[in-house]
Amino acid sequence: MAKQPDEQRLELLQGTLDMLILRTLVFGPVHGHGIAKHIQRTTDEVLKLEHGSLYPALHRLLRKGWITAKWARTPNNQRARYYTITALGRRQLGEQQAGFAELLEAIARVMRPA
To answer: Are 18 and 60 a contacting pair, CB within 8 Å?
Structure first.
């Protein structure tokens, strides 16, 4: 059965969020708040992740085996869950980046003036 447009849109949005999280974790273990701040900072405040989007995405990535998590202390001695990308997550990130680049090129072709 073919996917409905809303299902496809949700998958695209989730896939993009997953890709951004995985890319952030390439630099090393980060807690959830740090992931959100990194994405916000590197997009010049264009993307702001709400907890209602970030934490379900992190749980989804954990279930898929793309990331792992462990509890540790932050520099200011707060207890936080730190997330790390796995080898499987790195492979997935590579696939997602290739697909995203292809999508961006396709959109650019449509947007270019004739």
So the answer is: yes
Q: What are phi and psi of 79, to 5 degrees?
A: -85, 130
The 10s digit of each residue's pLDDT in 79-100 is 999 999 999 999 999 999 998 8
Residues 35, 55 contacting (CB under 8 angstroms): no
Domain total in the chain: 1
Domain contains 3: no
Residue that wins the pLDDT comparison between 114 and 100: 100
Tokens linked to 91: 């492979």
- Whichever domain contains 57, its CATH number is 1.10.10.10
For residue 104, give Cα distances in angstroms to 8, 73, 95, 99, 114.
17, 39, 14, 9, 18
Q: Which residues contact 16 (CB under 8 A, 6 or more apart)?
A: 100
